[in-house]
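Translate structure to sequence.
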């Protein structure tokens, strides 16, 4: 067994993870949702037999948070049953499994950062289905199963809040953005780098199995985050105005407080992800260029 297998590789994080693995000199293969249905035990076993990976990273997920409220069974099949199928196949093959999860497994009503061992209490169907996936992995692979929770993820390879704000800055005089939800904007490329290090540490025996939090340092609100995006774009931050969540009611409740603690990284010798501001400053030019290219393509 050697190398890595990334499921859900067509998504934003999956793309960045494959790039990070290539840059690190790791042999890796990616399977998107058209190439592998993670809920199909036979297909999953066949994939692990074909690639014989030492590390599997599951980036496949139902991420339509609001749709999950009306389609919880469908979301659970991908977010809950799928990780169990992967975990059982990894148990049979001896591979390490890293499962991506979310801040939505928490109630979102804390006032200090949620530690990795903090009690969960999801308030949405999406959160419940992702928690089911966490438990499936940790129960099936107590020694070789890893859960990495992330939040407020953005990057080049998919739709996300930052790319939306870049586009809206060019067409809106003002923007109303919620100022009563607090979290940690996280660049997918930063998270991908930590996943590479975690997988290596897992194989080396220097990172215990269990839960890790893969979010940026610091904290902010969507409103303040948007103002920083505008500032970096050279636009007037005063064009961004604060509002409340009541102005944007959605089917799934959003956590008011999604700040995660990162204490489990230090004993592994791996530094937590840097502050969100420095990451955004480095990431933004690539996101602006991606949107420019999209605009050229759509003309």
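Result:
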């Amino acid at each position: 067994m050697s190398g890595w297998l990334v499921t859900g590789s067509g998504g934003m994080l999956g793309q960045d993870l494959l790039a990070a693995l290539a840059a690190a000199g790791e042999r890796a293969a990616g399977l998107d949702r058209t190439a592998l249905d993670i809920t199909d035990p036979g297909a999953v076993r066949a994939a692990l037999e074909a690639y014989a990976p030492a590390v599997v990273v599951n980036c496949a997920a139902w991420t339509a948070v609001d749709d999950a409220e009306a389609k919880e069974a469908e979301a659970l099949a991908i977010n809950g049953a799928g990780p169990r199928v992967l975990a059982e196949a990894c148990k049979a093959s001896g591979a390490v499994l890293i499962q991506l999860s979310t801040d939505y497994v928490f109630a979102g009503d804390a006032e200090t950062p949620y530690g990795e061992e903090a009690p969960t209490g999801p308030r949405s169907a999406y959160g419940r289905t992702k928690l089911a996936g966490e438990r499936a992995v940790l129960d099936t692979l107590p020694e070789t199963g890893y859960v990495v929770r992330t939040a407020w993820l953005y990057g080049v390879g998919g739709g996300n809040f930052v790319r939306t704000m870049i586009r809206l800055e060019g067409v809106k005089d003002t923007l109303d953005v919620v100022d009563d939800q607090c979290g940690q904007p996280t660049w997918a490329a930063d998270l991908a780098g930590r996943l590479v290090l975690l997988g290596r540490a897992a194989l080396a025996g220097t990172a215990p199995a269990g839960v890790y939090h893969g979010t940026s340092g610091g904290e902010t609100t969507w409103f303040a985050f948007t103002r920083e995006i505008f500032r970096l774009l050279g636009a007037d931050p005063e064009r961004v105005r604060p509002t409340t969540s009541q102005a944007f009611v959605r089917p799934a409740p959003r956590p008011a407080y999604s700040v995660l603690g990162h204490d489990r990284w230090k004993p592994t010798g791996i530094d937590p992800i840097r502050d969100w501001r420095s990451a955004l400053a480095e990431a933004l030019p690539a996101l602006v260029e991606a949107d420019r290219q999209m605009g050229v393509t759509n003309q």
